[in-house]
Design brief:
Strand order of the largest sheet: 1-2-4-3
Distance between the termini: 60 Å
Number of strands: 4
Largest sheet: 4 strands, mixed
Helix content: 55-70%
Length: about 350
């Protein structure tokens, strides 16, 4: 199945090539450390399944399933067959025994999601199907199957529910504040889960350039002849290292309401992982198996997560992250650096006298 050959259904014809399969692979193999630690802790939590089964009665999961069944096109051998083949292939490669139902929804906005509490369902929009070529779409389908294998659909459904609930209780100050705090925490987790699913998409497609192209198209549309992957990655480098402390704060404020990381950041993170020893080990057949998930240590997962965040802070070129690193290292004149970094937020004082009294750029 993973060497299913060439496919034509209005999409780019791609050469047949064999892809590696990962029997019994655990989602821990590709999960981002911050994502993995949260999931391990939740899976270990006593009564976790019972709570969510009770909660399922409050969530509109049945309504969502009926909505997609009645007003979208279900992918099968007879409808969107090329997507059906990709779905079977992705489940085969990641060894997901139960193939999730998949729907195509009429929406010009390129998007895909995996939702559901009891059984995940995958939804892709027509905007995404029309935007991506065969190999780019294969990575997206693998991305969503990765969400299903990791159990992300449960938390994604809760996030959608709580976001809807927040709008309904926005007039209650304290109630809305409490819900928004949970939503903010869930969004932070979900942004990390997107990095995990991007890795799953790469394991399925096994074509890093196709994964990069897909992210680039999501950012800039179907003008591939006008875009360049290397230049796109340079944007991520500029975003990470450019500006001052004001820009660092604005970056945080910009990302808080989002469920997904920015496309350039996702591309840079995926490229870094594709070049890592961890990815190569998986491709060589050395990866954690599902049958060992129950023995996973919560404390080990949290340590890995903490180490990952510490590494991100240490290697980041962002001015705020540099300041945090200097603070940890005991660097001097931090007060002055913070003052200079935020000078731009204040109105410059009026000039007194000649040019020498004009405000200087810091």
């Amino acid at each position: 199945m993973s060497d299913d050959g060439q496919q034509q259904t209005g999409h780019e014809r791609v050469p047949s090539r064999q892809r590696r399969r990962f029997p019994g692979i655990s989602s821990r193999a590709y999960e981002h450390p911050a994502d993995r630690s949260a999931l391990v802790a939740l899976r270990k939590l006593s009564g976790f399944d019972t709570v969510f089964k009770a909660l399922s009665g409050l969530l509109p999961e049945r309504s969502l399933r009926l909505l997609f069944l009645s007003d979208s096109v279900r992918v099968s051998e007879r409808q969107f067959q090329h997507l059906h083949d990709m779905l079977l292939d992705a489940c085969y490669i990641l060894d997901l025994e139960k193939v999730p139902p998949m729907y195509v929804n009429q929406d010009p906005q390129p998007n895909a999601m995996c939702i559901g509490l009891d059984e995940p369902i995958i939804v892709v929009t027509t905007g995404l199907v029309e935007l991506l070529d065969e190999e780019e779409m294969r990575a997206v389908v693998g991305h969503e199957v990765g969400h299903a294998l990791s159990g992300h659909s449960v938390y994604r459904t809760i996030l959608l529910f709580l976001t809807s609930l927040a709008l309904k209780v926005a007039w209650i100050p304290l109630g809305n504040f409490a819900i928004m705090a949970i939503i903010t925490a869930l969004r932070e987790w979900f942004r990390k889960s997107e990095l995990s699913a991007d890795r799953a998409g790469l394991l399925v497609g096994q074509d890093v350039r196709a994964s990069m192209r897909g992210l680039m198209k999501i950012a800039g549309g179907n003008h591939l002849h006008e875009m360049n992957v290397d230049a796109f990655l340079e944007q991520a480098e500029e975003y990470d290292s450019g500006g001052d402390l004001r820009d660092s704060v604005l970056k945080i404020l910009n990302v808080l309401p989002r469920s997904h990381p920015f496309a350039t950041i996702r591309a840079a993170e995926l490229k870094k992982w594709a070049e890592s020893r961890d990815y190569q080990r998986i491709m060589d057949g050395h990866y954690p198996r599902r049958d060992g998930d129950k023995d996973t240590s919560v404390s080990d997962s949290f340590r890995e997560s903490a180490a990952s965040y510490a590494s991100d802070v240490k290697t980041s070129k962002d001015p705020l992250m540099k300041l945090v690193t200097d603070l940890a290292g005991g660097a001097g004149d931090l007060g002055g650096r913070v003052r200079r970094g935020f000078d731009g937020f204040r109105s410059p004082p009026p000039a007194k006298g000649g040019p020498s009294d004009a405000p200087q750029e810091g």
